[in-house]
Structures are given as C-alpha cells and as structure tokens.
C-alpha cells in the first residue's frame, strides 16, 4: 500500500510564504484562496514569547471528515491516501468546509483576478476550468504525482512528481513521500525525530506530520 | 482556476536578482508564448547552496510581467510644473522621439562640458537597492562609462538602509563589505538584529535551517521578535540603539571575568595588532629609524619593530620605552624618550574596564546575567586550539560568530558595534576562519569578484586601505559630488561604489539647504533613475519629493507610474525580468551568505516577448550611445568588461568592433563566450545559444577561499585591530581641514574618530533631535523602528498583488506592530486604526497587537505609504519613512543614519493620509 | 497558542443556511404539533400547511445558497455517511406526506409526516454535530438543542394558527422548558470547550442577550396565558398572551439559529501542542 504524506519540520520553517506563493501561481488559485499557507503563531507573554511558523493546508486525513459529510461523493479518497474533489459532482454546499477541522477548504462565488475583474494575459492563458461555486483545496498536486508516476518518477524525490510547495520550500521544511515505503525520506525523518499531527483527538489521522525536535519519544 | 497546461510548453532558464541576497536561478514556464509559472532551478541543486530554490519574490514575476498598470510606451511630460499635486500629463511618444530628446540634451551638455560651474557632474544617476539594478540594466554601465563623470550621490536609501558601517569598517578590517556567520560550520551565533531568515535570501535560510538541525545556538538580540528571533534559541529584547553597550559589555566580560586561556592568544599575537605599543599621545610607538610600530619583546625585554624575526611580543603590559617616536596627524613626528607605553590589548582592556554587565543592563534593559551567560557560551563554543581540514589545509576552527542587523549597523553607535563585533571575533581568533565571522565580498577595493586578491600589504603590517586623502595639500576641499563623500568621509574612498555609499541624504538636503560655507550645488541637468523610488524609500518623503520635483530633467526607466517617476520628464519602458537578456556572475562568495563551492555566470534570457513597446535595456543603452555620439567609447567599454567580463584576455578575443552598432544578442553572445573562457574550467567556449538552453555555467570554487585568514597568514599581515590609530589620525586631520575652512557643522561626526570606541548615550541623540525641532520628548514616548517580510525585502514588489496576499499571512504586514500591554494602556485593540506621529509628520495603519515586541517600541514593516504606484496606493499601509527626518545631527561620521525615530501613537477613527503633518 | 489567532468566523453559510435550520425547525415542530392536534381532534391542517411551507422555504433558501444549484440533485448521492444527503432524502418523503396530510386532512398521514419531520430535524441536528470544523456546532449538546428548539418553535407557532386551549399552552410551555434545559446544557458544554471560547463570547453580546430575553419572555407569556386559561380569563386576554408568547417562542428560536449559524460559528483554531526546538548549543553547556 501507498500513503502519501507531508512532513513539515517546524524547526526549519521561517514563514517566508514561498510555498504559499508557489502554490498560488502553480495552481492558479484566485485571490484570497490559499491551498497552502503558513501560519504565524505567537504564544506567551512579553518577554517570554515564542513565535512559530506552521505550514497548513489539507491534511489528507485517513478518516476525512469532509468526505464523510459530502452529500455528493465529490470528495473522495484515493488508495494512496490523497483526498480529492470532483468539481463536476460538487454542488458547492460548503458543508465540507464546515467539517474540516483544519480550515483547509475554500469556496468562492465568483472568480476574481489579481488586478481586478479582468484576467491578466497569464491568467487568461491558463487553460483551466472554472472552480467558482465548488469547494477547492490542496490536492497534494495530484496531477503532478500521477504524471510523474506515469514516467516512473518517485513523488517526493523527483521534482516533476512532487507537490509545488515542497519543490519551492527554501528552508527544507516541507517533505513529501510515501510513509508506507520504509526507504522514503519522510519515513526516515519521522523515525529520527519527534513529531505530532494536528488535532489528533479528532481521530482524523491526518497525513500531515509536524516535526518539532530531534530524537524519538 | 484549476490549471492544466496545454499547447506549446517551454521551460526557459533565468534568474531572479531582485534583492541583494540573490541571485536565485530559476525556470520560467511558458505556455503558448505566455509565462505562466516560475519554478526553482532543480538542475542547479548540486551547485547552489540553496539547492536551486528561489525566494518568494520570484513567484511574483509572472504578475509583474503582466501587470496591466505597466508603462508600455515611452512617454513625455506635458505639464512643466512638477510636484505631488501636479498631474504630469504624460503622453505616449515614439522611442525615436524619447531617445532623441535625451540625446539632444546629452549632446548639449557634452558641448558645454561634463561638469558645471561648481565642478559637479551635470548628469546624475540613481539606482536602487544594493547594486541589483545593475543586473537588469544590460549594457547601461558601458553607456555610463562612455559618458564620463556622473554624480551618483542622490540616494534612494543607500547609506542609511544598508548595513553601512559594516560596509565601510568591515571592508577596512577584513575585506568584509558584507559580513555573515560561517553558518555551515558555526555552533554559536550572537545576532544583534540581523534578520537572516527574512533578508538573507534562499542561501541564508537554507544554511541556517540546516545549522538549527545540526544544533547551532543563535541568540537574537533585538527589540521585536522577528522571524529570525522566532527561529533562534533565545530572544533578548534589547532597548533600541543600545547594542554598542551590550557588545562592549561582552568584551568587558570576556576580558575581566574569564581566564586569558579562553582567548586565542596566538591569533591575537600574530594576526592582530594587539601587541603593538601605544604611547600616551594615542599613537603607536614607532621605531625612530624605520617608523614601524613597536612591540615589547619579552625575550629581550625591549621594544622591537613589529616584524622583527623571532620576536616574542608581550600581549599585555605597560612599559617604558627608551627611544621611540609617534606619528601624529599630518605626519607630525613626536619623539618619545623614556616614555610610558602600553600594548594595544591593554589599552583596549583599560577602555572597556567600566563596561560591566551591570552597567550595560541599565542601558540595554537586559539582565546582567544574560550578558554573562552569552559571553560564557561564546567562549565555550569557540573551540580554542581546534582545527578543521578545508580543501586539504588545516585551518583554525572557531565556530562562534557575531552578526549585526541593519539598524544596529547604521548611524550613530554602528561604529562601536562593528568594532566590538570584529573584536569579539578577534579575541577568540574567530575572524575569517571556519566557523567564525566572515566577509563575503569587497566593493571599496578591487577586484570585486575576488576579495582575496584585494588584500595587498600596506603600512604597519596591515592591508592597504584606500582612504580619501585628508592631508593639508591632498584633501579635496571642494566636493566633487553633491554629497561630498570624498570631502567628508575618508574611509569610503573613491571607488566606483564609494559615492553611493557616502552620505546620500546630504545630496538631497544640500540641494535645498546647503551649508553656508559651500555654494549651493546646482542640480544635475539630467537625472537618470532606474529601479529606484526614493519618493517612498528614503526618509521625510514629503520633503524629499519636493526636492525631486526641482530636478530640471528626469529620465526614469519606468515599470509603472510611481512616486518618483511622477516627477519625470521622460519615461522609458525597459523590458523587465522575464523579457530581457543579461549574463551575470554567480557563486563564489558575495553579499548575503552567498558562499558557494562553485563560481560562474548565469543568463537571463527573454522567456517571453516584451510587453507593448518595452525594449531591452541593452538596446536602449546602445541607441543612447549612438545618438549621443558615444558609440566607439561605448563599445570600447564593453570590450573592457563593462558587461561583466573583458571581451578579450589571455588566449581569447571576442571583442566587438567599436565602430558598429551591435544588436543585443551579438553583444551578449560575446559576453557569454568571453565569460566562460575567462572562468577557466574545461576551456570550452559557451555561446549565447548554449546559455539559453542551459542557463548557467560554473566551475569549482575552493572552499578555502571563503576565508581571508590563509591569505593574511601567507602575506604575514595583521588585522587592524583592536587599536584604530589610522582612524584617529584621519579624524584629527579631517577636523583640521574642516576647521581651516571654518566648517564646524561636522564636529560631532569628528568625535567618532577614536582609536578605541567608547559608549556615549546613543539613544539620547534621537531624543535630542526632538528638542532640536522644537518638540517635547515627552510627547514622543515610543521608539519607532522598521523591519521586513520576505515578499517585500528590498524588491520592488509593492504593486504586485500576490506579494501582498501571501504577506497577509504574516503578523504586522501593512500594520503598526505594538506590544499588547502598551496597546492596552493606549486603548488600542488589534486591528484598530492608529496614527504614528513624529515632529515631521504622521503615518497611519492598523494596529497589530503582539507580545513579541518591547513595550517602548513600535515596528512598521516595509516601505509603503504609496500615493501613486498602482495597487500599492490603495493598500493604505503605513511607512516609517514618512516620519523619519533627514537630519545632519542624526548622521554619523560615515555619512549614515538609522531607521529610528521617537514617535507618539494614538488610536484614530479613520486613516489619515500619509505625509499629513 | 492563542486560539483566536487562527480561528476565523465562517462566512460560507449565511442567513440562507440559517433559514434552512429555521424552516426545518419551525416546520418540523409544526408537523409534530399538528399530528398531536389531529390525534386530539384539534385544528391541524393549517398548522401542517404552514409547517410544510416552512420546510420548503428553508430548503429553497439552501438551494439559493449552494454554488451549483442546477446540480442540486447530486445531494442524494451519499446517504452512507452524509447527514445532508439523509436530510434531503427524508425531505423528499416528508414534503409529499405533509402535502397529503394537509390537503386530505388525514390524521394517519399527518402522524407519519410528524415522524418523518422528527427524522428531518434529527438530520439537521446531526448535520451540525458532524461539522468538525466549527466547535460551536460540534458540541454534542447541539442535538437536543436543535430538536427542542424546533419543538418550541412549532408549538409556539401553533398558538398563533391553531388552538390556544390549556392543553396546547401546556405543550408549548413544556417544549419551551425543554428548550431551556437544552440551551443551558448546550451553553454549559460550550463553556467547557476551550475551542469554543469565541462562540461563548458571541453569546454574551447584546444581540444574543436580546434573543435570550425574547426566549424567556415567550416562556413567561405562555405561562401567563396558561394561568389566564386556568383562571378562565377573557378569551381575548388568553389569545393575546398565547399569541405573543407563541410568537416569541418561535422568533427566539429563529434568532438563536441566526446567531448559531452566522454569528457564533468560528472555525476550529489551528494550534500546535509543542514549541519546536530551534537550535540549542552543541558544544558545552546545553541550554
């Protein structure tokens, strides 16, 4: 079996938002829609303050609450763990948005453009389909993964088979790969370091792991 | 949109050098002739320290290219009146009309002479951040060279927004125009406000992230918790502008609370001037016969010249020297007979004796124990005596470093900080060795591309340094540029970069109010501006805009309308990042944490056709040269290397015929071929077509060449520390020269020329400036400082929506960052509109209430307050630049000031437009 | 981490979505009340018809809200786990049943419709309960709150359009008290849920206090109406008290749902349980 997961090393992330920008440009998401973003969190009271940068987005849960509530079956889970949305089935009820504990989904009524109502030449040149009115979210760049696999590439290792955010990450915070593959870098990272998953108590079993220190518990 | 590319897809190699922390190699994805995406250059993963990744700014280049607000035809002004309140009345014109208009003025000037009646260049030029515009101006440097004298003194932030004191003193002491930690080897970093995680670029971010995983400890000393502070092991919130006290206290603690064995004594003895004897008059005791500085030889119990073979110099002590002399200012020889002397080391210790941690604690608002534990950890991690093998050579391994941030490094107090930082490194032998504090490049010395070769033996066992003359006959009493850099700032020298590093705000200030001793400098007759927007990026932007409006003829290379080209007479649309051709140098060591194991060149080729009538800068430069009758000199300049590499050299000749007009590709083809040959390597010649396919060409670069120490050792040279005899002498001479001219308005700057930096109440200068302007300091109770977020770090990104959108994920973007307790006292809640006011004006923005900021400090990130730049002007973001004064009193001896101002903050009901006083 | 830093107000479901919960609650409550009325021989057809209209109106509002209304039938595709699909399926039976009950005046069909209405309202309650991204809805006490509120709204509304005799006043009072208990339980549960802190704050704002006051006032008026009826006060007095109390019972429910769906619905805060270790000294002392 294969399960693709994302690993974010919080020791490395500097909150630069390069992944956010790479995702937006690569996936052509409209203004205000961010499938990948980095939170800027602060805790404590002056002067004992911590500030932490946390990449977030769809956690591609093993038990996705979004899929459970979706009335149309537009949200599905592939055998490799990637949670997808069928834009042709989705009715845009937004229920999945309410069900996601990770605030990872978006729905806009009308497509906007970077500079207003008119698309730029680059925006117009994108031969994509309209996603206004349906739910969208990070797909782990599933199209890149499938295209890469078809060429015999390894997701997480070969850039052409790897999500754009991972490719772009300048600090090396983001890693991607098959957690079921004992030889994968994500497996090694998780084995050698202490990590957690967000909102574990929800039982969602997210496919997004956060490393916070070396060693194992 | 869900994107699937269809049709013709090409991937074009290119680079992004929008900030000085680059260049980043990248790939442009082009679908049916339209750029749709930027990707990292994965092919460069093996040779690039950041694994071929690109910073967030590069991802804005697609929007930048297709920005509907671009200026896409040449334009001319139809309203002769200039000012913020004037509509320029720009109308499109042809390239011929634009270029002929400019050439006509150039030809007229040439006929009358390049210098005006005041001896100042009639043509001026200003380029933006850190020399990066040069990487986008094609062959314009060849045009400028062909023209002759040009005034570069009108700054857009140069000298006050860079790391100015580091530039000057860093290069002076260790050829470190920019300085960083040897991050890949270091174990402990004291970072005073250095914001590597934001402004260090891809290489710095990756290196520091790797270092964190490896286990480096970085202590961040800064008034607010930046991303770099966030990613550090410890944050020490220091009171603004008190860093000199903190660093001097570290020197004190190391010298007075630790054993001498904790220091690198051999390094101090052999590679520094610590053993040199200093006389009571403040100058080195010198050998009467040779004039060489003396050391006390413990073997013979007598003073001997510093380079005496077999000498066993005393590092510390006080001695009586029987027969010596000192050399004071203006070569005054002062005999010293049976005179007391102490070593420079002892003089240094005497100087810092009172700077205890308890003393600094009061000034810096840092617990004394914190200072002590930082000093202890610094020493514990210094690995005195250890070595490391680099490229087969055994070098000292001293994995401790000290880095300085922008406001620490600019203006008053910066000299003290630079000295203390470099001295701390010297004490443990961690200067220019693996793991230590390193310079990355030179700009005041040549050659720029190899700082090691710039090291040449000079006087007294030190490197040669090219100061501007201060002798009675050699001092330039009449400024040669409008900022008087050669007259007022000896250390800046007179290299091509020197003028732009002078006090660049003085050019703006003197254009309005010249000192009475000097005639008011006439304005330049033509001012070229490219990738620069002083209208928002300098200080007191309202006043500066009024000065700009007085420029008689401005040629602005224009991307969109902005606050500076609003005053222009001609707008020229240059083909921008994804549309133009240029080959630049990459690798080796340079600027911000660019330590590569390779060196080479990279091509920016047009990924897409230029939009509208935008033209390649090389074409524009060639046409200007041709129309101004400078073609031969222009081509000759290209042949000499104005495009990066001489077109002829040992065993190769790709020279261009000087009497012909060459097209863009012909020129860059020659540069490509010459550059690859000049790099050596396999000896293959790579032409433009090859580069268009492959993007970059590199050859190995020795890691040993990251460090200056081996060169210094080979040449038997010493770092000019701790004692600053040369600066003392130069300062005294400069003072004499100025006073001979009855100039006294530079006297407080002269106070900075001391042999050993001492604390003076640095923050008080800003408080005093309030009184000087008739204000009451009590009315301005807070410190206002600035910081950055990566999407806007030094890049011209204010008009790009993507940068704003992703920056909104970061706290404080476009806002006024304020401590929660302070905000509560002022009745300010997160998101409230607040006004930040100084005596010169006010700026307004939303409050970002945080814990990670000192209660006495507010922070306004970035440089905004736009009123013309499309998109940016609608953001209504605040800017510290609006409220920071242009002030002579706040200008230090190097001609620098700092982004600091005393402010009042209050809640307001609605935004008040920027600049409203 | 401070939850408020990453918790945001949900903006995807607006008044139209609230309208579905209002229509569903009042409608279902009316169905149940009408069925009881039918069994007791009281007037019920008008109440049933209004209940039906409420349900249809609510569903129509949702239809207006979804991004792709012409694909609305896709809502039936996922009965396995989706309470929204189940709600739609139940609605598909409930509406004709209600229609038949109202038109034919059939007590039996009305009873069946009331059972379906209970199912419909249960689906709505479970829809909210399954929304794991909104702590205020995720609260388990949301289910009795939605059910009891529907009953209180319906029984209150019945006082306006049906009978105002003691039996119905007792029933409305009972439903109101039930809702009171459910509300207190919900509110207490919310208070115990740190993730719902911002929602708790919203329930302390003036609009929420107003809704709460209306709810209590409705209860008091119904109780007074009951007292008036027991004491054989003039019918006009009983009618006025019962009508006002019933209206307030319904309106307070509507207000509560507007608050719950559009004002108090904050997303679950993104938070991390530990601070990452970003560098520590490797050489000598560890700190």
Q: Which SSEs are present, and which pair or pack?
A:
The complex is a heterotrimer of chains A (about 220), B (about 900) and C (about 290).
Chain A: E1 4-9, H1 18-27, E2 36-45, E3 48-57, H2 65-69, E4 75-77, E5 83-85, H3 95-99, H4 121-125, H5 142-150, H6 164-168, E6 174-178, H7 185-192, E7 193-196, E8 208-214
Parallel strand pairs in A: 1-8
Antiparallel strand pairs in A: 1-6, 2-3, 4-5, 7-8
Chain B: E1 9-16, E2 24-31, E3 34-40, H1 61-65, E4 75-76, E5 91-92, H2 95-112, E6 123-127, H3 140-147, H4 164-174, E7 178-181, E8 188-192, H5 196-199, H6 201-214, E9 217-221, H7 227-230, E10 234-236, H8 243-256, H9 265-271, E11 277-279, E12 294-297, E13 302-305, E14 318-327, E15 333-343, H10 344-352, H11 357-364, H12 368-380, E16 387-390, E17 393-396, E18 400-404, H13 414-427, E19 437-441, H14 485-488, H15 498-501, H16 504-512, E20 526-530, H17 534-537, H18 541-549, E21 554-557, E22 570-572, E23 582-590, E24 594-604, H19 617-627, H20 631-640, E25 648-649, E26 652-653, H21 664-679, H22 688-694, E27 696-700, H23 709-715, H24 725-740, H25 747-750, H26 762-772, E28 782-787, H27 801-807, E29 815-819, H28 820-825, E30 833-838, E31 841-850, E32 857-861, E33 901-907
Parallel strand pairs in B: 6-20, 8-9, 8-18, 9-10, 20-21, 21-22, 28-32, 29-31
Antiparallel strand pairs in B: 1-2, 2-3, 4-5, 4-22, 7-19, 11-15, 12-13, 14-15, 16-17, 23-24, 24-27, 25-26, 28-33, 29-32, 30-31, 30-33
Chain C: H1 15-40, H2 45-65, H3 83-104, H4 107-129, H5 135-138, H6 142-161, H7 166-191, H8 197-202, H9 206-230, H10 235-263
